[in-house]
Every structure is written in structure tokens, then in C-alpha cells.
Here is the input.
Amino acid sequence: MAALFERSVLGLDVGSHGLKAVELKVSPRSLAPGQFRIHPRVDATSPISEHLQRFVSMHKLPTDQIACALPASQLSTRRLEFPFSDARRLAQAIPFEIEAETPFDLDDIFVDWNILVADRTRGVVAATLAKKVHVASTLEALEQSGCEPQVLEAEGLVLANLAPVFGLDGTHLIVDIGHEKTTFCALMGGRPALSRSIPVAGRAMTEALMSELGLSFEEAEQRKCEGGALGRPGGGASPGVLAIVDRIAREAIRTLEAAEARQGEGPVAREAKVTLVGGSARLDRIDDVLSRRTGLDTQRLRMPADSNHANLVEGVDTVLFGPALALALRLSGESLTRMNFRQGALAYRQDILEFFTRELRPTAALAAVLVLFLLASTTSTVFLQHRRADRYEEAAVELYHKAFPDRDVSPASPASALTRELEAAQDRADFLGLYNGNRSALALLAELSNAIPVDLEVRITEVNIDRNLIRLDVDAQGYEAADRLTSVLSETDPFQGAEVAGSIKTDRKTGGVSFNVNIPLAPPGGEA
Here is the structure.
């Protein structure tokens, strides 16, 4: 069932030296790894669209949801502070503040931002602007390759998405050392505060080795990758490579100081930690050299052993795929950044048919399962009710033949036939006045007359008979007559249980007595 809600997202890092892609499988409760692929750009003169087409086709990469980034050199970031933090008011105010601080017209740029501070009294944002022509040219190249991105993030700032997954807490500087440029992302309080880029990285190191040792580009590249450019036991470091690393160290400190000044939270730059990503960050001992030059704790990106996402990069070079992974995380629930320069006329247009086919597929599958369950439940209920009705019908037929054993033919509806017979019997009983033992009122009077001895001098003045009781009003000569009458009647069926009801009254004029006798017609513990 979880597979129904799973979607594949792709982070596409378009570098000058190679293409890197990270696929993640995202579901409401999990984040699982997919493909981690790299494709070198051997011929840098070929259009990027050709490389991307070949890359995607070769590895069958998913292209439904892609995140890419605009180069940091095409972006400009401003820190803006407002006396409010409501997102709607910020959306209205930020573009005008950007227009006032920059020489660009609002019609020529796209603006997006990340919130740094939000409380009741103020809102602080890091607003980034990009020219529309740069966004359009980037999208054109990607669309020609069949890799139209849903999200076009800001290179550098998007690296902040690595922080929650890799546990990069506090003040942090993520340094992406690529082939032609080095990009910095400063995190303050867990939020991206500043990003910048310098045109110095791995290629400059290779060229320095070419100049110093008289090697070809390929030979110098191999020498750099094999190690020793930054020194090794028994050998010295390349002065040119050291100079480049020194410049990266200086720019790292400047980036932290600039972010600190913008944040206005005091001197925290010297407490920061530096994390390295990118292809050139794998250069032997570069982390040690940068740590000495900056005086900051510096290490390559690595996943903590106790992290909940340890399986996400198991067996993967996290340093090499760090930027692409940050882009893929932008399309997951683990994202810190929310910027997207696909705006206005260049906004992503979702194909409605494709959306219903892909996004609503889980809902349609669940609906189909529910319909199947409903059909199965209805069919089972109908079958069980039919079986129960058959059993009731058989029981009714059996009762009918027990009640009327002389009838060989079973009625079409035995329950209805039994109801009609009962109603007829009740009608006959009402007409004939039947009582206990199917005796009529006349039969009861005759039996009552026979049960009273002729020598018992009593006179019955009134007789009341109903379904459950015979009531006699009796006059006699003395008390003994009452005892003898009840005794005689109690010994005769169906007058057992006869007894004097109430008190015996004495007539002063005649000296006789009068009393009532109740005779229950229902047997003890039963009904008439």
C-alpha cells in the first residue's frame, strides 16, 4: 500500500565538469534512496541539452519531478527587515524594497526569499533576485533535453537542505568546491542567511600544477587526483594549489562575517563549523589545510552513525553528491528552503491529465479497493440472509406439519399459514368462550354444579368467569360451609386452588354468612 503513495523526485546538479543526479523515493512516512548517478562532460563545447538527454536516457532517470538551481553568479541576495512578519504583507513589500536597493526594474527580475526571523514585532528575510533572461535561458536548455524542472532553486542557498538530514546544527558554513567555482552557504540558527560564489576551484588547482610542473591538463588533473598537491609525507605541497586553498579559506571567513553582520547577533563566526562538499572537496588533506587556515572545525560531509537517515546515503560518496542531494531534498518533506524562480510567465504548468494520471493514481486505487470490499460485503450479506431465510422457512414447515399432521401438502408460505391458523383459532375461542382445558363457560358451570355436594347448603348468588379466574359470590348457613366448599372444589379438576377471597361477612338478621371464592383457571406457574 505504501508504494501507491510513493513518488520519485530528482535533484539535478548541472556542473561545468559533470552532471550529477540523485533520485529519492518520497512517501508520507519515509524517505528512501533511489539512483545516485554521475556523467562527465567530456566535450564541454557540446550543448548541455545533448549531455542531459544522454544522461537521462542511459540511466532511465525519472523526470516527473525535478529540482535544479540557478548558478550563484546569476543571483544577488539582500537582507531585509520589516516591522511585521505576516507572509502576505512580506510578499507585497519585498519586491518594492528590492527595487529601491538595486538598479533593476521589477519587470526584469524575479524575487524570492527565505525567512530568517519571524516574531510579533519584526520579520527578517534573505531576499534573492534573479534576472528573467537568466531564468528563461536556463529553462530553455533544460526543456530541450526533456528535463523540465518543477523547481528552480538558488544555487548555494539550497545547500541548507542538507542541514536537517546530516545534523548540521548551530552556525555552519557549507562550502561546495566544484570544478570552476566555489560556492558558500552560511547557516545561522539553522536557516540559510547568505550565499556567494567565487570563480576559483578544482580547475584553477589543475592549471597551477600545469604551470609549475610543465604538464598537460590531463596529466596535471591526474597528479592532483592522485594526491600530494597539498603535501604528503616526504614531499612538499604545490605553492599554487596552496594559494588557491588559502583564497577559499579567506572567502569562507568573509562569508561568515558578512552573514554575522547581516544577522546582527554578535561575534559567532569563530564558533562556526565548516562542511565541505563537491568534487574538488575530495582533494587529499584539503580539510586539514582549510581547518588550519580558517581556525574552524572543518570536515567533509558525512552522515552521523545514529542518524534516522543513515540508510539514505549508505555506500554513497556524500561529498560528491552533496549538492544534487540538497536539490532532491528540496522536493521532499525535509526541505528548509522554499524558493522557486519559476514565476509569472515562466511558472511551471502542470498537465492536468498527467496530474490526474500520476497524482490521483493512489486515490483511484484506494477507491477501487473500497468498491471491491463493498461488493464483497454486499454479496456476502445477501448470501447469508438468503441462507438464514431458507432455515427459517424449513423450521416453519416443520412447525406447520407438527401442528397439522393430517395435512400432507406444505403451504407456499408456512409462516403466513401458521399466522392465519392462529388467528382462526383465536376467533373460534372468542366465539365459543373457551377457557382452561378448552372448556366452555357452560361446561365449567356444569362441572362446578357436579362438584358441589347436594348436602352442602350453599347458595351461589353470582358467577363471574374470565380467562384466568372464576369468582363465586356465596351465601351459606355458617363458617363451616366456606371451609368445606373450598376443600371440595380444590379436590376437583379444574378447580384446584379454590380459596376464600377477602373476609367472611355475617348477616345479623338471619345469622348466615356470605363470602367470595376465587378459582384460578391457569395451572400453577403457567397461563390459561
